[in-house]
Design a protein that fits this description.
By secondary structure, this protein is an alpha/beta fold. The chain has helices at 32-40, 81-98, 117-128, 145-159, 176-185; strands at residues 3-8, 21-26, 57-62, 66-70, 102-110, 133-138, 165-167. Bound molecules: guanosine-5'-diphosphate.
């Protein structure tokens, strides 16, 4: 897979649109960088031990065809109000300028926990913008079989049949093919 990474924090500097964008968003530490590394087979998305640090939009150009877009993680307790506002602005700017090129938003949620307030806010935002989204339940390897089925049922009940929910683990690689298939089906491969 040929891959180029570019980091943007200004709208006028966003790259030329290609055949669509697949967006990854979620709370800090949910496993977003690990997933992007897994999907691209590289170490391109830095796995940070200091979450919530950079509020920038990372575009990963894949095979000169489409982008994986890495939005800054949210919900990190230790950021200042100023950084929180900056975070919101940058995501808003991204959605507003590129919504038309977005194929799907992958919303990553830690599969061990029930829906958090800021995930709910993100979902409402995505719905308001009329963006198609799918839920990736991360770190599913950390759950026992019974807990895993319980959490999957909880999210299925919460979202109904209209949304694809993908249990995923960077350790066992469960869900990785499902995510890549979705990218392919939506015309990204
Ligand atoms: P980000 O802040 O969302 O980019 O999260 P990272 O990708 O940096 O991951 C945060 C932590 O969770 C790291 O220590 C990862 O090794 C760990 N992690 C990520 N995905 C998984 C997973 O599927 N299973 C397990 N057990 N740990 C994971």
């Amino acid at each position: 897979m040929e891959l180029v990474k570019t980091i943007y924090s200004k709208k006028d500097k966003f790259p030329v649109p290609l055949n669509g964008e697949f967006v990854f968003v979620g709370r800090s530490n949910v496993g977003k960088s690990t997933l992007l590394n897994t999907l691209t087979g590289t170490n391109i998305a830095k796995i940070s031990k200091k979450p919530g640090k950079t509020a920038s939009v990372n575009f990963y150009k894949i095979n000169n065809l489409f982008y994986f877009v890495d939005l800054p993680g949210y919900g990190f307790a230790k950021v200042s109000e100023k950084e929180r506002i900056r975070w919101k602005q940058i995501i808003e700017m991204y959605f507003e300028s590129r919504f038309w090129n977005i194929k799907i938003v992958f919303l990553l949620i830690d599969g061990r926990h029930e829906l958090q307030k800021n995930d709910e806010q993100m979902i409402n935002w995505l719905k308001d913008l009329d963006l198609q989204f799918s839920i990736i339940l991360t770190k599913i390897d950390k759950l026992k079989m019974s807990e895993k089925s319980k959490m999957i049922s909880y999210y299925k009940r919460l979202f109904g049949e209209n949304y694809i929910i993908i249990p995923y683990s960077a350790i066992t690689k469960e869900g990785v093919n499902e995510i890549l298939n979705l990218v392919e089906v939506l015309g990204g491969a």
